[in-house]
Amino acid sequence: xxxxxxxxxxxxxxxxxxxxxxxxxxxxxxxxxxxxxxxxxxxxxxxxxxxxxxxxxxxxxxxxxxxxxxxxxxxxxxxxxxxxxxxxxxxxxxxxxxxxxxxxxxxxxxxxxxxxxxxxxxxxxxxxxxxxxxxxxxxxxxxxxxxxxxxxxxxxxxxxxxxxxxxxxxxxxxxxxxxxxxxxxxxxxxxxxxxxxxxxxxxxxxxxxxxxxxxxxxxxxxxxxxxxxxxxxxxxxxxxxxxxxxxxxxxxxxxxxxxxxxxxxxxxxxxxxxxxxxxxxxxxxxxxxxxxxxxxxxxxxxxxxxxxxxxxxxxxxxxxxxxxxxxxxxxxxxxxxxxxxxxxxxxxxxxxxxxxxxxxxxxxxxxxxxxxxxxxxxxxxxxxxxxxxxxxxxxxxxxxxxxxxxxxxxxxxxxxxxxxxxxxxxxxxxxxxxxxxxxxxxxxxxxxxxxxxxxxxxxxxxxxxxxxxxxxxxxxxxxxxxxxxxxxxxxxxxxxxxxxxxxxxxxxxxxxxxxxxxxxxxxxxxxxxxxxxxxxxxxxxxxxxxxx
Length: 548
Description:
alpha/beta; Metallo-beta-lactamase, Chain A; Rossmann fold; Ubiquitin-like (UB roll); 3 domains; 7-stranded mixed β-sheet; 15 helices; 30 strands; 30% helix; globular
């Protein structure tokens, strides 16, 4: 590391260059804090139940001990990796608000981890964490208690937004504390580290009130069958909207998906989603007429193991999808999930249901700031420097350009692993540290650079071939080669031709006095080349030689 102990430094390890997996480090005077530690879900190249997390090797190799982890809110891309990496990082103290703490505790419980050190943060309360003075500020988002983090040091002050939008009348939680923002402007916030997700949108993200009115219009159409609504489990405002509108039309709601149940229990524990008596269990849903039933389920991103996919594939023993049911996708498409969502919708249409999504109706509003909202935040905070985070590189670049047009003096465009020296008027990248990704597969974690995963990717896309050769010491075949390749081809003639090729090549190489290892490698190349020429695939190939 090329910075000194007295330097104030910012290092993103996740979320800068992608949507998800948010993880941000701050260093000052030999003290380290982390803001958020999230996950990304599997994309088109991975299974939907596989989680991608920030690689924390930089911290472990340098024996860095965190003085604390601060969580901005309870979305998976901000807290999802905490139970997996908590002990690896030294069981640090976690600072967050009451609702996020409730969600996190339930995640730890599901992993059988009981001993966790959580300290609650109250709004507008100063907290000393290492060499940093920390304060939380209420913002608005799509989940209760989203916070900006105010970081004060002897050198300068930082405003770390977390996820946010401007909703003047939030249906759940507190409105933005504009008076406090005015005070911060007068105090001086030199640096703003800011959400970039919706930077290509010109107009405000909208209010949950808009969704509520749209659902009222849909429900008023006297739909004769049940309504199925899929949304993000963590969107408490959306769950309240669905419960309230359903109640207005005398409909009962059924929650499907473990994450929805966990979020619901956390919400009740913190006095959200109170006073609704129109929730019934899956088991009791059969006693409710179809036209009075609203199913609220996970799976809006096409996840194969989520509740909606299970419904589509007839794997729910209490609830079925029937012709003319209405399915509402009350969520946005996360980049990378488009194909999976499209496949799920095709499955639904084959069942002759009606689909409504945000492309044709205002059944979803974003929780992230548009350009107009970003400009308003610039005016409230008046920072010298903007560091865009939380987005793909195209989002970060557009955000930096927009901030410049709005008169922000300096913009620092970062990617994961960049080490940013924070100074009043000259913040800059000074070096780069390792920042990779790790994959949770089963209960094991692997670096995405791991050979095992590279082979797995080949298998999933190109298939495998197993060749077994039984011969004597003179390379004379004692039986024809055994070729097993069900993931590559089902053509018997190709397998037949491959057996002949292996036999011929083995005969040609008999006089070369090759070791079995070299012989095996040469035959692998020949097999892969033949398959590539024949059907365009390069499968993972294994050749075993047995001598008798």
